[in-house]
Structure of ABC transporter substrate-binding protein:
Amino acid sequence: MEVDNWLAQFRNYQPNDFEMIYDNWIQQSFYKVDPGIKEKFFSKLDDWFFHTHAFLQGTSFQNEARGRILTVGRVLAENIENITDMKKELSVDQLTYIAEQQIARGRLYSFAQGGLTGTGGWLLLGLDYPLMMVMNIRAVQLVGLTFGHEMNHPYEMMISLKVFHAATLPKRLQGAAWKDLINEVNNKNHPYIFEGEDRLTNESWIEQPLKQAFKSLFILTFRKKVFQGLPFISIAIGAYSNYHLTRQVTDFALKFYQYRHLKHEEREG
């Protein structure tokens, strides 16, 4: 099974010396921070993610994407009336086909937005990180919707945010995050209420914002190296970096919802 082959990368992954030193440095750095300040910082960050998820549900972009998903679904199975019918009426291959359409569009948006950021304007650089987080949260939502899960339900909202969080972790930490996600959906007791740990961010997640800071630094460094009036190196850095992150997030999300769908079919069968 393709998902099993993908999961093998986590089982076989061995962190190198640099990653181990980096982990230790992060832990030591945050150990020195006042626990109250640390708690407040990550709590505010989590709140921002929750509010962003809720905001996206009411946007016209999301409603239009939802309509496109249902339209394609009805072409494949005329009995589909709402999102939850998707997982009942379509096979995992059909759902994957629809999800990949959404994913391709999301990656294109990230590539374009990253290239625009690479022009080096301070406003664009300042907006880049929150925009990337919003776009990737939305990408996870669309994959979840395609596989028949209503994102406005508290349980599915929390699962999609956990998927987003896991997908943005360093690769050496994704295996443990994947296991936690699978345990959560396998041991679900209530269809709408999330009963697990509702915290998202912590010290281990800080690597992602640090990568963003380095990307911004590189863009600023190369923005004056122009060719025919454009800073092509900075544009390439921004476009590739944002595309790479969205590819990482959407690959993880697609594999998670595929795995979840297949396991549900096994139980129902």
